């Protein structure tokens, strides 16, 4: 009997391959995927995403509905754009969607996914979350640092008083106070002070943080089309690696100083968050050892998260108020009535200032710092709203769209804090129409600190000063464009003029 020829083998191989492709095609056809635009070969729907992805995706969701499937290169992406979808992804199926996709930003800027934000769901992340809730952001620890927040706020108010009548770039001053507060709480001192032994200047450090936020939020083509990742077509990976080196040099210096301070001290008492992290790293009972790289990743996360969000939110709030003098008037009337004109606002006063709280909520509705939250990742196949979401799907929750839903908000494009007066809507992750810090297991662990800093900063800025635009600017000239990264700040920083509105002796802080 004649043995089979190579041609016969090849034919059998091709037939098997055809059957496999057909069966996989048939299996795929059975999936009931959410609606969405038809993807192009290779790039998927990336051609539909502009420089402000949350707005591009918002426009698509108006056409395809509150749950929509896109394709970014090789990866399926499902977007939820309604309260019901936010609740499904962040609460009902929270565990299923509790992981993070692997991205270049996570790999190169967070010590290979060692931080709180980008680490995948599992024992390491669960331990990190527990550290945040029990140690780093416990109510007791945050209260113990209140004096730092007060001192730095007083320094800002004093500085603004000296600049009365001159145009100031508000974001610069807000970033400085946020960075000083976070540096003292996390690192124990202002490492960015202009001194001979400072490892970075304040300006360099702010630029590093801006770059970190931009690179963590960019749409890096290689994350979507992995086989061209090595080409680094946009140059982002080169920038990530350079930034990582700068941060590592700084963080090594911080850890060395902290370890030297602890050396040989019996019963050492942790004074700042790095001390706490180093003590945890020494703990032999931890389920997963916290390595030095993990301490550095956590520290970087704490500094970046705490600095950017509060400065961005307060700048947006003041920008919106400059366009609405009546809202400014209502806020200052409340402050004068509740606080009086002979003292400054304290954190404990905030619950007695519902109008100021409403301004903060309205700012977070219209200008969420992370408009699509940080992406999630499905750990297993599941069904949401009757649609199949296969394992490995990336998930975005577009809170920017939810904040503009006319079914939820009357005149959604108008800045109107009154909408929150008398309404029991908070920003702590339980009211899905307003989720600036996210919700569920992956909610921002520093939300309570961020809220304290934002509310007290804004209240004191409104209480202490009258605000106006420079004399050569009209209200209609105020540009409200934004730029997109992991945070969404104003494209053109706000320049304003301040004048004291309290008795002059109030400023001798």
TrEMBL record:
Q: Report whether RNA-binding shows up as a keyword of the record.
A: no
- What does the record give under GO molecular function? heme binding; iron ion binding; monooxygenase activity; oxidoreductase activity, acting on paired donors, with incorporation or reduction of molecular oxygen
Q: Which InterPro entries match?
A: Cyt_P450, Cyt_P450_CS
Pfam families in the record: p450
Q: What cofactor does its activity depend on?
A: heme
| Keywords noted in UniProt | Heme, Iron, Membrane, Metal-binding, Monooxygenase, Oxidoreductase, Transmembrane, Transmembrane helix
UniProt keyword Plastid, yes or no: no
* Record field: transmembrane: 6-23
The family this protein is said to belong to: Belongs to the cytochrome P450 family.
Supply the name of the protein: Flavonoid 3' hydroxylase 2
- Give the organism, scientific name: Liquidambar formosana (Formosan gum)
